[in-house]
Amino acid sequence: MPNFLKYILIAVVGSLLFLPFLGHVHLFDWDEINFAECAREMIVSKDYLRATIDFMPFWEKPPFFIWLQVIAMHLFGVGEYAARFPDAVIGIATLLTIYYAGKRIVNEKMATWWVILYAATWLPHFYFKTGIIDPTFNFFIFLAFLQVYLLRFSERKGLHAVLAGIFLGIAVLTKGPVAILVALLAFIVYVIVNRGLSGYKIKHLLAIAVFASLPVLCWLGTAVAHYGFAYGKWFVSQFVWYQVRLFQTEDADHGGPFFYHFIVLLVGCFPASAFLFQYSRKRVTENAQAHDFTKWMWILFWVVLILFSIVQTKIVHYSSLCYFPLTYLAALQLDRLTNGSVQLKKWVKGILLFTGTLWAIIIIALPVVGINKQALIPYIHDKFAVANLAANVGWSYTECVWGVAYLLCIWVAVLLMNKNFRKGMLLLCAVQVIIIQVTILHFTPKIEMYTQGSSIAYFKSFEGKDVYVQPVGYKSYGNLFYTKKLPSANPNYKAIRTDKKGKELQPEANEMWLVYGKIDKPAYFICKIQDADKFRALPQLEETGGSNGFVFFKRK
């Protein structure tokens, strides 16, 4: 097959995997709704330089990904599909990029395995169907690392230095200085391991730094020219302080033990993660360029994993940058296993069987738990979780067939690897792609009905109405996106809060004024069931209903 046809084939397959059904389920609080709401507000305000949330300054993220969502919303309209479309396109671009990189650095067979494995691994595949920043951020970070690697071996060093800087700068404009931190730490480790710069020249490193600063400076410079120097200074100070606070403290109760991300990658990146255990101290023969890129990938993997294990805030996608090196390293082993240069270790097969069985049990358990939820309720001591289970979600034992079939296929595929590793691995990957689609299309909407279905329906009932709709006692962005909220004219609506050190926190709706103050239009409230009694005790609030753990009130 001609080379260009292979890229076309990958693009077509990627489009079929990532583009359909992006809007089949509501956006999830917080991150998906947060970024989509920023994009919607940009369109409403026609202010494309500053991100806002509830039409108040939002400094937690730079605007690049939000710009991509704005473009998608102009194409498809404001909604779930448009919010997730940028990551789906990034997914297609990712498969094309890793095929190019794998073929150029190692060989075509390894590149093909890399593409197949990336598409067949749970979390890397799943994240391309979401509307969060990380898939886009990770893509540009990887492009920057790829260009830095090519810089060492290519004769066009200036071009690769410029591209590395631009891609790194876009990554900064996507998620912030964590891109610089990851790149700098990885390069320092690389220099220590190689005991020197290993062919990199200072002028090229300076070029990378200069061009990495351009995307951010262009944006900030334009914003400063439009809003004044005080805005630029204020935004940078608030943004940097937020990043420091995120590193030092648990944000939004998202804490966890040090090994949190180790477990996330082991289980969430099945089956790719199992093949990291295939490595041994004995080095397998490979060319110098491939060996150097492998070194880069190991360094990137450990830098990201350790860095975000240290960070106090623990969220699943914080370690998602590991997906690139993890799948690359796994694909290397698949290439070696299929050409017979190494043999599959017994404990790797054990990890494949154990982790695959764990996933199958989870899928089997979903309908079983849904049907028998009453039997579990006495053992659940969370009032809100118990109320969530009251959601009217239709389940059938026949849905267990998906999990049972998945379990059987996993075992057949791993056992087949003993006789023909290539056929067994292809079967495993094919089964993975199918079960991931089934989970996203069939099971995710049912899970959403338990977690946020009632609250989203409540918010949507106020779409287009000139009222206040406010969550109390908990945080949500659903009331903004799904009511299609417009800017509030009343200056009392905005509340400014500070942390213990006196630093300004993200502005938000003035909950106290909405509940107790002299409001200028009707106000409606939603809270979780465990907080309902204290709001029932307020004479100015009238309970209007409730559903699945959420209780609704109206200001009399």
* Shape, per Cα inertia axes: globular
Low-confidence stretches: none
**Biggest sheet strand line-up:** 3-6-8-7
Mean pLDDT: 91
What oligomeric state do these chains adopt? single chain
**Strands, count:** 8
Strand content range: 5-15%
Task: Describe the sheet with the most strands.
Answer: 4 strands, mixed
Proportion of residues in helical segments = 55-70%
The DSSP helix count reads 23
Cα-atom Rg, whole angstroms?
25 Å
Estimated structural class: mainly alpha
Intertermini distance: 71 Å
Secondary structure: elements and pairs:
Layout: H1 3-18, H2 31-45, E1 52-53, E2 56-57, H3 64-76, H4 80-105, H5 108-120, H6 122-127, H7 134-153, H8 157-175, H9 178-194, H10 202-227, H11 229-248, H12 260-268, H13 288-310, H14 323-338, H15 346-371, H16 373-376, H17 383-388, H18 400-416, H19 421-451, H20 453-460, E3 468-471, H21 478-481, E4 494-495, E5 508-509, H22 511-516, E6 523-528, H23 532-536, E7 541-547, E8 550-555
Parallel strand pairs: 3-6
Antiparallel strand pairs: 1-2, 4-5, 6-8, 7-8
Outline of the structure:
This protein is mainly α and 556 residues long.
Give short descriptive properties of this protein:
globular, 8 strands, 4-stranded mixed sheet
Explain the overall architecture.
This protein has 556 residues and is mainly alpha-helical. 62% of the residues lie in helices and 6% in strands. It contains 23 helices and 8 strands. The strands form 3 sheets. It has a 4-stranded mixed sheet. A two-stranded antiparallel ribbon has the order 1-2. A two-stranded antiparallel sheet has the order 4-5. Strand 7 and strand 8 form a beta hairpin. Helix 1 runs antiparallel to helix 4 and helix 15 runs antiparallel to helix 18. It is globular, with a radius of gyration of 25 Å.
